[in-house]
Design goal:
Strand content: 15-25%
Helix content: 25-40%
Number of helices: 15
Strand order of the largest sheet: 1-23-2-3-4-5-6-7
Radius of gyration: 22 Å
Number of strands: 23
Structural class: alpha/beta
Largest sheet: 8 strands, mixed
């Protein structure tokens, strides 16, 4: 254990982050207690190469001691490492909400399939430095991991032993996303997970426990405000401009969450005749289509009436097979294409980029957070060319960013969330954010709540509290 203070007592509760510490990716947060070691989230590193390469490293010694895993939601940077973690020997249970269970299965199967396809393509075309190129994990590894999934409904306490229990609270963000309240040895520790918007297209606002002694909190947009304008207006303008130019509109989006939000916006715009009703809309992501069906399975998690949730898929053509992607690209006339991945790190969206980036009539609509080192961040930074599968493609298409559709709470909403604890937490630990965002939020929370705020550093163990002998003897 890499402690900042070697005098830490043995009978105590500690916190360590092995990802999403001063970065927005690879979430893994370890709560160490005398009885159980609990890992909250188990995500892949994404973004810059130095981060992605860490997915291939052997897990640290501390992670090998995990007894229980709790998953906040289904995005790859929170769940994508699970198959490899299981492959490396984890045999415990993995707790999550019912919608998260369904969506995580979709995402992990898709992740493994894409890795297998990318490795095969790299070997056939020879653009990998590794001979042979291999996937990080396979569909078989995913099948093994799924056997350890256990669902738990929000609001109900599940006792891991006599001293430790946990509850889920809906966090917005995406379907099934939750914050986690862990009660142990008389103290309450809350992991926020990713906090959603207070005014979402599809989801109700976040809910959280009334009180907490310690809060481990995301800070993705700790230094930004999304603005109050309806993102549908910006969508309509971008679509009309692109149609006028006789171009195509490409929307890179996360298959789980943003794709469904965008489909609902397009449904609203067509229904109100704000955009042409005959403009073709293609969803080139079977996983996004499956995730959309999950919305219909869990109506209690939505703000939409079930009938409207079903209607929003009308007029959208789903491409079930990547072999048909080329046909969509060649189709004449303006069209709207939704494809994953949202940060342009992989998936079918790359094929559209190859064909659409070089034409100034086309529009690339960026709607979600773009991590450092991703193609999406490079495009927002006005990169003149983008590298895809070993080749460079010039950027001539218009790149338009719409911030109001982000799934993450902005600074104001993060402050609203943390101020909901009464009394204020004893201490706040910031994770899942880049340094500038974390520092801005740290100062805001410290000034407005007068509580200590710590920015977590990877691998550094933080003492939360000591456990007195009376508590241990009472077990």
């Amino acid at each position: 254990m890499n402690n900042e203070n070697e005098a830490f007592p043995n009978e105590a509760v500690y916190l360590q982050s092995f990802g999403a510490a001063e970065t927005v990716t690879g979430s893994k947060h370890l709560l160490q207690t005398p009885d159980l070691n609990i890992l909250v989230d188990c995500g892949l590193f994404q973004g810059i190469k130095s981060l992605r390469e860490r997915n291939w490293e052997k897990p640290s010694a501390e992670l090998s001691t995990v007894d229980v895993m709790i998953l906040t939601h289904a995005h790859l940077d929170h769940c994508g490492y699970i198959p490899l973690f299981v492959k490396n020997g984890y045999r415990g249970k993995i707790y999550m909400s019912p919608p998260t269970r369904d969506l995580t299965e979709l995402i992990l199967r898709d992740s493994a399939k894409l890795q297998e396809e990318d490795a095969d393509k790299a070997n056939r075309h020879g653009y990998s430095k590794h001979q042979p190129a291999e996937p990080l994990y396979t569909t078989t590894d995913v099948e093994h991991a799924l056997q350890q999934f256990v669902t738990q409904e929000p609001g109900h306490t599940f006792h891991l032993n006599e001293e430790i229990g946990f509850r889920f609270f809906s966090a917005g963000h995406i379907l099934g996303a939750c914050s986690v309240e862990i009660n142990c040895y008389g103290k309450t520790i809350v992991f926020s997970g990713d906090i959603g918007r207070y005014h979402s297209e599809l989801l109700p606002p976040p809910v959280h426990p009334v009180k907490a002694d310690y809060v481990i909190m995301e800070s993705t947009y700790g230094d930004r405000l999304h603005g109050e304008a309806d993102p549908a207006e910006a969508f309509a303008l971008a679509i009309k401009n692109t149609i006028f130019q006789r171009g195509n509109l490409l929307i890179p989006c996360f298959a789980v969450g943003r794709a469904q939000d965008v489909m609902h916006i397009l449904y609203r715009l067509k229904n109100s005749k704000t955009i042409p009703q005959d403009i073709p809309v293609f969803l080139d992501s079977p996983m996004a289509a499956s995730a959309g069906r999950s919305l219909l399975k869990y109506p209690d998690w939505l703000t939409l009436p079930p009938a409207e949730a079903a209607r929003m898929f009308s007029g959208v053509t789903v491409n079930p097979d990547y072999h048909h992607t080329e046909k969509i690209i060649r189709q004449r006339g303006s069209k709207i294409v939704l494809a994953a991945s949202g940060m342009l790190t992989g998936g079918r969206v790359l094929e559209y980029l190859k064909h659409y980036l070089g034409d100034k009539k086309n529009t690339l609509l960026m709607i979600g957070y773009q991590a450092e080192g991703t193609r999406g961040r490079a495009l927002l930074n006005q990169a003149p060319e983008i590298k895809i599968h070993g080749q460079y493609y010039p950027v001539k298409a218009r790149v338009v960013e719409i911030g109001g559709l982000s799934a993450h709470a902005d600074q104001g909403e993060l402050l609203t969330w943390i101020k909901g604890f009464v009394p204020a937490p004893g201490e706040v630990f910031l994770v899942h954010g880049e340094p500038s965002a974390q520092e801005a939020l740290r100062i805001k929370i410290k000034d407005e709540l007068q509580v200590p705020v710590t920015i977590m550093k990877e691998g550094i163990s933080k003492l939360l509290f000591s456990i007195n002998q009376h508590q241990l003897n009472a077990q």
